[in-house]
Design a protein that fits this description.
Elements lengths: L6 E4 L3 H13 L5 E4 L2 H9 L6 E5 L7 H10 L5 E6 L3 H13 L3 E7 L4 H8 L19 H9 L3 E10 L5 E12 L3 E3 L5 H6 L3 H21 L5 E7 L8 H12 L6 E6 L7 H13 L3 E7 L6 H6 L4 E4 L11 H16 L3 E4 L5 H10 L3 E2 L8 E2 L3 H11 L6
Parallel strand pairs: 1-2, 1-3, 3-4, 4-5, 7-9, 9-10, 10-11, 11-12, 12-13, 13-14
Antiparallel strand pairs: 6-7, 6-14, 6-15, 7-8
Helix pairs in contact: 2-3, 8-9
């Protein structure tokens, strides 16, 4: 099979370029351009030459692979990236994170010498992303615009399922806020949550998300869909001692039992008042509201959280889940997180389950719940019923 995908190879070793080009040809990728100079590769991309994939070495003279990725991002390169290096695998993993921080589409990282099976596996992800996923333009919004949007009822929730790994049964959904901007369309939370936190709007934003979620949960329960819902809360929400009572009152108003509700806490910023936060979190648990430590292993999350706060669920960040079956470092961190959670009697959720390899890895490691695109992307509430029907058809093949 021959493909029209155009690939740019960048490596200062001529033999490595020839070998990789030969491997690619064996997989049907014959539209290949190779260069030993990173600056030439950058000039080729900057000139508007359509490149679908850049495969670059990290260790190069004059301009190394990290510099090249930074410059590719600055000239607006929207194709895919595969990193190749003979360096330590941990350096390779960190370089992958650097590329992702530039919002680049990183298919993966390969250690030299490149195993043909690994090259083939990574390139399988190329077909679905080449020129099909538009680059989301990041736009900033003022606090005034955001407040108007919240008060005008422009926030909408999408819902992403969480399923039991052993049985495949759906356990609940996570509510994820979007802003239905009147002129910009659907705006994602990474473009407005920080503004809400910095300008004192996070409480009214969280209240709007919670009201919408609880109202929808009641509709699902009335329709016979027995489900739990998770809502993200900021550390800034945990500065008001009346927060637990506010949550309980809203749930009662919408007719949702408190034990169907879970709050996912992400420490994206330091606690302003640790005593108040501990007070509030403990009172939430006393009300039988579930507490999940979200994105564990990132931000300000720490072992002290697990020691001091009565969480009953630990969500392992996607950065330690996707590809862990191929990466010993990720696997070690993931399994250590699971071990701690089990010793503390906490349920475990793996985020970022992107493919069947991730799913099989979770089955082998004994993780409790899974969430990610392999199961479902976040969806509007009205699509959940149809998805549940489709999932029941798909489920038996995943729990064999």
């Amino acid at each position: 099979m021959t493909t029209t995908v155009k690939i740019l190879l960048v490596d200062d070793e001529p033999f490595a370029l020839k070998l990789l080009a030969r491997q690619l040809a064996g997989l049907g990728y014959t539209n290949v351009v190779a260069t030993e100079v990173a600056a030439d590769a950058l000039a080729l991309v900057a000139s508007g030459n359509p490149i679908d994939l850049v495969m670059c070495d990290l260790q190069m003279p004059e301009m190394d692979g990290i510099e090249l990725m930074r410059h590719l991002a600055s000239v607006g390169y929207t194709g895919a990236i595969v990193l190749v290096s003979g360096e330590d695998v941990r350096i390779l993993h960190t370089a992958q994170m650097v590329a992702q921080s530039h919002h680049m589409n990183v298919l993966g990282a390969l250690s030299k010498p490149i195993p043909p099976a690994e090259l083939s596996r990574i390139l399988e992800g190329l077909a679905g992303c080449v020129k099909t996923v538009p680059k989301r333009v990041s736009k900033s919004y003022s606090a005034v615009e955001l407040e108007h949007g919240i008060l005008a009822g422009q926030l909408v929730n999408h819902y992403q399922p969480k399923v039991d790994v052993a049985s495949g049964l759906v356990q609940g959904v996570e509510s994820l806020v979007r802003w239905g901007h009147p002129s910009d369309g659907l705006v994602y939370p990474d473009q407005f949550i920080a503004t809400a936190e910095e300008h004192g709007l996070i409480n009214i934003l969280t209240d709007a998300v919670m009201t919408n979620t609880l109202r929808q949960t009641r509709l699902w329960l009335d329709a016979g869909i027995d489900i739990h819902v998770a809502i993200n809360v900021s550390m800034d929400n945990l500065a008001a001692v009346e927060f637990p009572d506010r949550v309980a009152a809203e749930a009662k108003k919408e007719g949702v039992p408190l034990n169907r509700l879970e709050l996912e806490v992400t420490e994206s910023r330091l606690m302003r008042d640790p005593r108040a936060a501990l007070d509030i979190l403990t009172r939430l648990r006393l009300k039988r509201i579930g507490l999940s430590v979200d994105d564990f292993g990132t931000g300000y999350s720490s072992l002290a959280q697990l020691r001091d706060i009565p969480f009953d669920e630990l969500k392992v960040d996607r950065g330690f889940v996707h590809g862990a079956c191929y990466n010993p470092q990720l696997r070690g961190i993931f399994e250590a997180s699971l071990g701690m959670a089990k010793h503390l009697g906490m349920r475990t959720v793996a985020e970022g389950v992107e493919d069947e390899a991730d799913w099989e890895f979770l089955r082998l490691t004994g993780c409790d719940l899974a969430q990610g695109y392999f199961i479902s992307k976040p969806m509007p509430a009205e699509r959940l019923s149809a998805w549940l029907t489709a999932w029941e058809i798909r489920r038996p093949g995943l729990v064999r």
